[in-house]
Amino acid sequence: MSEKTIIAPSVLSADFSRLGGEVEAVCRAGADWIHLDVMDGHFVPNITFGPPVIKAIRNRTDKVFDCHLMIAPADPFLGAFADAGCDIITVHAEATTHLDRSLQAIRDLGKKAGVSLNPSTPESVIEYVLDRLDLILLMTVNPGFGGQAFIPSVVEKVRRVKSMIGNRPIHIEIDGGVTPETAPLVAAAGADVLVAGSAVFKGGSEEAYVRNIAAIRGASDGAMKKAA
Ligand code: DX5
Ligand code: ZN
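^ thats the input. predicted complex w/ zinc ion below
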C-alpha cells in the first residue's frame, strides 16, 4: 500500500532497563513506526508487557504505536490498549473466537484494526473480514520470541494476500526474522511494513540502529520498485 517500506522496530529486542531512551534512539535512527509485542504466556510461550508500560513510553515519540497482541482472549483488554496510546491494534485470528467482533471493537475505539496469522494459518480465515481491516500481519516465525529464523513458505502467502485485498487500503506487515537478506523477498511479494527486532537493535547504539535500519530499508525499497 505504501510506496516506500515502513520500518517498524520491535522493542522486544531493546534494552528494557532504558526502554524510553531506546524508543527515542530508534526513532531518531529512522524508525517509521514502533512495534509493541504484547505476550501473555498463554497464547504464546513468553510474557512481555502490557498497557502501563506502553503508556509510560507513549510521550517519547509521536510515531505510530503498532501494537501486536499475542494474547487470548484479546477482547477484554482492547480498551486498555487503546487508552494506553496504541494507534494500530492487531489481534491474532487464532486467539479470538469472533474475529469480526474483535475488529469492530477496535474500530469502535477509534483505532486502526489489524489481524495477524501464524505461519501455518491459511489466509482464507480473513476472506470475510477484509472490509474491517487496516492491516494484515503475516508471521514469518512462530510468535513468542525474537531472533528466530524466517520461514520462507510465508512468501507465497504474502502474494496470495496481496491479490485478495485488491485495491483496498490495507497494509501487509511482516514479522519475524526480517533482515536485509529476507526483506527483499517479502517486499517483492507485496509487503509494505516490515517489523524487525534483532536486526535493528543489534549493536546496541544509536549509530548501529541508523546503519541497521538503512540496510533493511535499502534492501526492501529496491525490491518493491522492481515488483511495481
Ligand atoms: C515475535 C514477535 C516479533 C519479534 C521479531 O513473536 O512478534 O515482533 O520481536 O523479532 P525478530 O526481528 O528478532 O525476529
Ligand atoms: Zn510482533
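Residues 10, 12-13, 35, 37, 68, 141, 143-144, 146-148, 175-178, 195-199 surround D-xylitol-5-phosphate (ligand 1) (CB under 6 Å).
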